[in-house]
Amino acid sequence: MKSVLTGAALGVLLVSGAAIAQPAAPAAPGGPEVKTVEDWFVRCFKIDSPSPCDMYQELDNRETRQRILSLSVAYVPSLDRHALQITVPLEIAIQKGLVLQTDSYKSPVLKYRRCDRNGCYVEQAVDNALVEGLAKSGPAGKVNIVADSGKAFSLNFSLKGFAAAHDDMVAQARAKAKAVEKPAAPAATP
Fold first, then answer.
1. Torsion angles phi and psi, residue 42, rounded to 5
2. What is the gyration radius of the CA atoms in the chain, in angstroms?
């Protein structure tokens, strides 16, 4: 896979200063409602969805403004399950997956679903135990990845406000979730 970052650039990107991205100014009508809970953002989108809200954190390189890491956790009330999306830079060893780790929790290997010019993505439903493990940890976590070169890296993220943001996101998701109707079956022809 041809990628945007070189191995050296990946190393520089990962060790350079990172900052938690601030949400943009409130969107035009119809945009998401965004609430800051310490180092996390709770976003609720004005859409008919079984999971209209998520909690989100993005870390950007302070100098280049390039995204280093983003994490999004959504809750689907009708299934009592969570959906997770993690974005990391390109030039990672796709087959190795990634692992979330805190002072008291370590996830199973999470497999990448896809890559595009913006990075590689883990996108999957996860057991509530993963989210509970993060909520009971603190104050920081890391995403362990392996570069194409075989070198292991840790991308650090903050857990400050994770539990409170999660509780707020779940409450809003329960209040705003709408069942998505299945299309009607075609009428039988006589």
1. -105, 120
2. 18
Lookup result for tokens 């903050």 = 158
User: Residue 92 is encoded by which pair of tokens?
Assistant: 């990672």
pTM assigned to the model: 0.81
Instruction: Check if the beta carbon of residue 174 is closer than 8 Å to that of residue 77.
Output: yes
In DSSP terms, 35 is beta-bridged to 42
Angle of helix 128-135 relative to helix 162-176, nearest 10 degrees? 140
| Per-residue pLDDT reduced to its tens digit, 64-95 | 989 999 999 999 999 999 999 999 999 999 99
- Report how far apart, in Å, the C-alpha atoms of 89 and of each of 4, 95, 146, 174 are: 9, 15, 11, 33
* 146, 153 contact by CB (below 8 A): yes
106 and 99 in contact (C-beta within 8 Å)? yes
Residue with tokens 């990946």, as numbered in its chain: 10
Q: With beta carbons less than 8 A apart as the criterion, state whether 75 and 65 touch.
A: no
Q: What CATH number should be reported for the domain whose range is 7-176? A: 2.60.40.1880
Q: Tens digits of per-residue pLDDT, 92-147?
A: 999 999 999 999 999 999 999 999 999 999 999 999 999 999 999 989 999 999 99
CA distance from start to end of the chain: 53
